[in-house]
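Title: Comparing notes on inverse folding

I've been comparing how different people in this forum approach sequence design from structure. To keep things fair, I'm posting one structure and asking everyone to reply with a full sequence. Here's the target:
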């Protein structure tokens, strides 16, 4: 899971929301951002 490289401590993510569904959406958005960021970094190199 890509997210684990960015946020090794899950408890930190729990601060963002208390709802399970919203929590899953947050993770999905974070993963999308990481993937896009990785694409930009790879593109620059």
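Reply #1:
Here's my take.
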């Amino acid at each position: 899971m890509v997210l684990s490289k960015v946020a090794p401590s899950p408890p930190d993510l729990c601060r963002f929301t208390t709802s399970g569904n919203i929590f899953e959406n947050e993770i999905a958005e974070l993963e999308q951002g990481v993937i896009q960021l990785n694409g930009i970094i790879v593109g620059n190199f």
